[in-house]
User: Fold DUF4220 domain-containing protein from Quillaja saponaria.
Amino acid sequence: MVSPIPSSVKKIWESWNIRGIILLSLSLQTVLILFAPCRKRTSRSLVTWSIWSAYLLADWAASFCVGLISNSQDDDNSSASNSSTTGNQDLLAFWSPFLLLHLGGPDTITAFALEDNELWLRHLLGLIFQVAATLYVFLQTIPKNRLWIPTTLLFVAGIVKYGERTRALYLASLDSFRKSMLGKPDPGPNYAKLMEEYSSKKDADIPVEIVMIPEPIKENKDRNSKNKNNNLSDLDVVEQGYKYFYKFKGLIVDLIFSVSDRIESCELFHSLQPSDALRVITVELNFIYEALYTKLQVVHTNTGYFFRFVSFSSVAVALGLFTSEEKHGFKKFDVGVTYALLYGAIALDSIALFRLVFSDMTAVSLTKSRESSFKATLLGLIIKVTNFLSILEYFLSFKKLRWSQCERKHYTNYKALNTPFFSRRWSESISGHNLITYCLEQCPKKSKSEAENRVYQFFMHISDKILWCWRSGIDYVVEYVGAGDLLDEWTYKFKMPFLQELWRFIFLDLKRKSKDVDDAETVKWICSSRGALILRGVTIKNEKQEVTTKEKKKLRERLIPYIEEVAYEESLILWHIATDLCYYEEEKQDKVDQKNKQEDAHFIIRISKMIFAAVIIIGSTVEEIMKRILMIIGGIIKKVFETVKGTLMIIGVLIEKIFIRKNHGEAAAKVDEKDYVTENDKREFSKILSDYMLYLLIMQPTMMSAVAGIGQIRFRDTCAEAKNFFTRRDVGPIYGKREAKKLFRRGDLDPKAIKAACDKILNVNTDVKPVDVKGDRSKSVLFDACRLAKELRELKEEKWNVISQVWVELLSYAATHCRANSHAQQVSKGGELVSLVWLLMAHFGLGEQFQIKEGHARAKLIVDEPEDPTPKT
Assistant:
């Protein structure tokens, strides 16, 4: 039978299989060490898939190559031996330890997902078998192997590297993570001894009583002194970030924290500015990422430093020995491959060393050493001479959060995060998904430059013409393989900027709620609220919340059923649609007002030019024209007066703030910052949070699984009803073949179609509840949301205050009720705003992970002998 594979192809494979695979393995290691950290800096699927592919291929290539080398040696041993064959076997044996180095992987990635950490035992077995296979390959060349010394050195380095990865996986597994947080067993006071003495005193008729004395909470003087000016340096940020990572990493495994931890954390975050709090939290999340997905916990120890020195030294010495070795009998190309492997290993270790020296963890280690007999150590002397801390702080400054004026439409008045990509600790953006644009099948415009957009549109046009005829087949394939949700995410997911003002708004809201909260019931109430606090006008201790009239209070209370009488996911979709309806209705009104202002301005200019002619020619209408002019001028004067009044109020608040700080200290200078948030700000914040929360519910179902309920079903039913409604009312371009359209007809948003759709929904008579008309079979909430939007209209100037506060509460509820390991999983995919809020609430003491009541105390036995009140503990 004729072989389907030509002999020429077989010869090429036999000649190049080992060489090609081992060079591929080296290339994959280079890709991983350079680009694996990018996955924490972006949520783009293309980056995630690329790193995932390289991660899987790297392990496969190294394991496969060991087998190829072993099989090749068996073939060489069966053939006639000569000097060339012997030299080739020596080189192959020399190459095999490199594969152990590659299986150990780079420092930047040990696990792709949390589940990989749970498979640490499988990697341990893999370590044993791969070491055995490599040792077998090496022993086959003994005793004639001229490279046995450098091979042995590389073998040691390979075992160290692979062992580091296995231990890193073990330490990052959830069981080990939980065990690492458990302190030494605490038996408590010696109850038996105390009661023996108590009984003996009683039997002797000596008056005695037991008094519980609470233990004093230790005050962190260093922390308080650093935060007096509320201005943290880059080193301080890293130090505080690690400190609270170490304290609160138990959140990932649902541990309970002490009262002292809560008090200390609250004191710090109440003293910080919102931007500094964000810096600390992003560093904290970065440490979570490093601990779970890299070799941080293994390398940054004294043992880790020692083994890293052994590994690097072994490779360097092996390079020197191979360079000095006579190359007689070795193939020239194979010698080149060997040098590539050696220099590649040195380069990879050098990159790892550079990252290690200038890492956040190194900064933490040095600041710790500085606080404990730092100057007395040799390391301290070296650092003092080289001024290394200043150099390190310079490198840390590149990672500092950078804010710049936002260039996106609707957000030009705000500042957005704009840190350079390779300096980021997370994605620094907020994802979004919108139900109405999804139902209208309008794809959000991706953020591209003008040139990129032109190339993109040209490519889409060509794809449309060539492949549109295959749309039916494409639809079938997409549905068959279950890629519809993936295409939805790729098509309808969009990015929004992370606004400084939005973070400040969320921070201050949570800060106000956390003040004076000292009992578990209040904390539980705040964490379980989904909008009821703002709707009921609840006052928490010293927080002042204005509800001026009974009428406004009644209007708010009419909204409570949309929060408390529905499930969380239903409430979220209801408020999402209602927010959109209110947003676009008001946007339309804003454009009308703006158009009227422009027309008035143009009218004044025209009138000023024609007024003299008008007086002469149309004498009878002079009075009417003058009235019109005076009316317009009066309107302009009124607007100018309102603007000046608002400006003077802000200046007055600032002057008052400065005066108070000067005369009454920092503690009295806490002006209510919510006065600086305008209604338009709250409107934009509500829109961002609305789209973001729907994105979490629909496109992050794993993360929201604890609160999602039947959110997917309710969303699909609502979309089905919306599409039918829009089709009947001829609103928007509705395409029959959706998957093909998503692939080849990606358009931009049509604001007119969206506004028309919102108007059509609002024009529907909703006097009767939808459930009373169509029953409960469909889970759609489209017209329930329409009823909610009409209720919100009645709030008038309070509308956006209520909506924005409700969205903050919905976000807070999701943050505290999502599973902790979901937050941990998400830090490797760019991070999420909800994870930042999760940590922020924990630091404000708004969570169920804390002991609210004091639990530490000492028992003191008091007898009626003042001279000998010896405490027994």
Q: What stands out?
A: The first strand starts at residue 208 and ends at 214. The CA atoms of residues 366 and 389 lie 8 Å apart.
